[in-house]
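Sample entry (96 residues):
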Amino acid sequence: VRERPELAGRIHADAPFCAAEAVYAAHAEMALSLDDVLRRRVPVAILARLDRTTVTGIALAIAPALGWTIPRAKQEALVWHARAMATARAAGLPTV
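Predicted structure, serialized as tokens:
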């Protein structure tokens, strides 16, 4: 956080996790995917509905730890968000 202060902020107001925790999960806990970070290591996606901008921000934050390029991080975020919203719609839940 000292080197990247932008990671100190909460990922979402409804969840007690900061972006630095997502980066740590990707770097030190061997998380292999965006889904692994958002649902298992830092379960923010279980506690809050994440909009596309938020998901993209986390994907870009963890990209260096996972060896992703910026285009790949954006694509991973797009795919993750689309799948999450399809699941929400199928369950009759609101989407963001």
